[in-house]
Specification:
about 325 residues, 5-stranded mixed sheet, 10 strands, about 15% strand
């Protein structure tokens, strides 16, 4: 999630520069998939599909790529990848533009509900949103962060202006909490589980539980709309394989962790196993099938973003489709 919105400010310009490269997929026989971050348990289903031969069974050769500095959406929008991982809150500003909107759309939710939220050390005394008053919050200096914090603090009877918004892009949440800030936005499946693993006495404010409007989709699988229109059967084949990968991860979290660790041996094994166990019941959760996006929940978040000036256009229930998911 970090830096997503900042990266998108440069996306439109870079898209124009990269457009000349469009069309690399044609004839190559390779489906290129760009991650949003270094490999982690959000990506396990992809690695399972690769390891188990699910892509090969669908007649696909898939290359899993690390993200560039400017983010996966730029590559995807330029046609230099077929799929990518991104987040609903980052996808919206990329497509709800009066000009230079990126030709991308979400085709599957990797995790059914928003598992991100605010982590604080217990000793900070932050037990609820209004407790952020007078405390230092690590902000990525984006309008979205300000709007979300304002929403939850004011809904709890607090005053947003009393929250100390401290610019901080630390990748190590715990170091930041020990030094510079009192609260930081994290994904529970990774940093929250890490806090448990390391016996860190912490509190977590779950955004999706605090406010249904903030139960947005993060992360999601995104495709290039031009590619999808020209290759609908290939998109469906890709998602069949990926769906099998996540289904396997849900049913066999420990074996799925083994597979992820083979592809990313630098990861902390204990953290991966605990995170995999945490996500096993959350990839699909209460959705009727893995990957399905609820148009009402998706639209409610984009409606709120538009009403708060975070989107140039009112796209509501646009920007996603369930049509390529396996039945």
């Amino acid at each position: 999630m970090k830096k997503k919105l900042c990266r998108l400010l440069a996306a439109a310009c870079l898209l124009a520069a990269c457009t000349a490269c469009r069309g690399g997929h044609e004839g190559s026989g390779v489906v290129r998939f760009v991650l949003d971050w270094t490999p982690n348990t959000n990506h396990t289903g992809l690695y399972v599909a690769q390891e188990k031969g699910y892509f090969e069974n669908e007649g696909l050769k898939v290359e899993i790529m690390q993200p560039p500095e400017d983010g996966a959406l730029v590559l995807l929008g330029a046609g230099n990848a077929e799929f990518a991982v991104d987040v609903q809150e980052g996808l919206g500003p990329a497509i709800a533009r009066k000009t230079d909107a990126l030709p991308v759309t979400a085709v599957a939710a990797i995790v059914c509900h928003n598992t991100s939220g605010l982590l604080s050390l217990k000793k900070s005394g932050i037990e609820r949103p209004r407790d952020l008053e007078g405390k230092r919050f690590a902000t990525w200096e984006t309008p979205l962060v300000d709007a979300v914090i304002r929403r939850i603090v004011e809904a709890d009877g607090g005053v947003f202006e009393n929250v100390k918004m401290i610019p901080n892009h630390a990748t190590d949440a715990f170091s930041a909490l020990q030094t510079d800030v009192d609260s930081i936005w994290i994904y529970y499946a990774w940093d929250g589980v890490a806090a448990e693993k390391n016996n860190i006495d912490a509190t977590f404010l779950d955004l999706g539980q605090l406010d249904p409007t903030l139960d947005f989709y993060t992360p999601v699988i995104v495709t290039n709309t031009d590619y999808a229109a020209a290759n609908p059967d290939e998109v469906r084949a890709f998602l069949r394989a990926v769906s099998r990968g996540y289904q396997f991860a849900m049913e066999n979290p420990d074996e799925a962790a083994d597979i992820l660790l083979r592809y990313a041996p630098e990861l902390d094994e204990t953290l991966v196993r605990r995170s995999q166990a945490y996500l096993a019941t959350r990839y699909q959760a209460d959705a009727p099938r893995w990957g399905e996006i609820d148009p009402v929940r998706w639209g409610a978040f984009y409606a709120w973003m538009f009403e708060n000036g975070l989107l140039q256009e009112d796209i509501r229930e646009q920007g996603f489709t369930n049509e390529y998911l396996p039945t």
